[in-house]
Every structure is written in structure tokens, then in C-alpha cells.
Amino acid sequence: MTRIISMKGIFAPGKHAGLVNGKGAKISAVLILGLAISGCAIGGSGYQEFSEGHYQQAYAEFSADYSNSPDNSIAQFNMADSYRQRGENDKADVLFREAAVSGRGVHPDGILEVHDSDTTVADVACRHLAEDHQSDSNCPTL
After folding, report:
1. Which of 88, 73, 101 is nearest to 132 (CA)?
2. pLDDT in tens, 46-57
3. Rounded to the nearest 10 degrees, how much is the dihedral formed by the CA atoms of 34, 37, 39, 43?
4. For the chain, how far is it from start to end, CA to CA, in angstroms?
5. DSSP secondary structure, 84-133, as one string
6. pTM, two decimal places
7. What structural domains does the chain harbor?
8. CB atoms < 10 A from the CB of 91, how many?
């Protein structure tokens, strides 16, 4: 059984949008949805680490989530965002492309970017691809 766990009580959408690391590079906002599968949450602890500026720890958590659930759109997106924060945009864009497909119709409980209630994982993944000047046939023209 899959159960959605809301993270809104911990991190309000938009609260950390536009975070900047010590070098001044804009950090891509992390999309988070707690998804309980066999007692394991996707994104939860990595999200908290990322929002607190502990990027290496977040990377480790997101890597574990992605390794355990490579077809999960949230795991794909969070791993992509972690790559992006590290400046590994080519790796990030590969996973954003995966999330653009697998995240169709997936409405996360929390997104740390400006969005509306209909925003899906695919929508945000496509937005990041557009920001990287990458086109994808699975994304509408933004």
C-alpha cells in the first residue's frame, strides 16, 4: 500500500525559493513529497538536509532514494536537483527528462517554487529543462 505523507507542516511551499549557496550560484528549489513505501520515505531527510544547506548529506540521501526507487518521479527529480546544485547539469537534465515522463499526473504535496494546485512533477522538471535551454518532446513549450 502506498500512502502520501504531507510535508507542508514542516516546509511551506515557496519558503526557501531562490536559495543561494556560498558561491552565489542559484540553487534549484527542491520538490518534495514524502512517499511511504514499505516504511521508507522518499525525499524526507534529504529535503531537510538540502533546505538547511547540507548539500553533501542531501546528495547522499537523494542518491539512496534514487538507487532504491529509480522509477519514482520524486526520487528522479530530487536527484536531478542535487546534481544541478553540484553543477552537474548534464546528469541533472537526464533525470529531469525522466521525471518529465514519470511525473505526469503526480501532484506533490510540497514544491519550493511558485506554483498552483495543478502543478505536477513533470511540470517542474520541464521548467528546469527549459531553464537549462534543453528541449524535450515530453515538455510543452514554456
Report:
1. 88
2. 878 888 889 999
3. -30
4. 36
5. HHTT-HHHHHHHHHHHHHHTTT---SEESSS--TT--HHHHHHHHHHHTT
6. 0.71
7. 3-131 (1.25.40.10)
8. 15
Cα–Cα dist 90/128, whole Å: 12
Q: Which of 85, 36, 97, 94 is nearest to 58 (CA)?
A: 85
Per residue in 115-125, is it b (16+ CB within 10 Å) or e — as a string?
A: beeebbbbbbb
- What is the three-class DSSP state of 21? coil
Per-residue pLDDT of the chain (142 residues; tens, 9 = 90+): 222 222 222 222 333 333 333 333 333 444 444 433 333 467 778 878 888 889 999 999 999 999 999 999 999 999 999 999 999 999 999 999 999 999 999 987 666 666 677 889 999 999 999 998 988 888 876 5
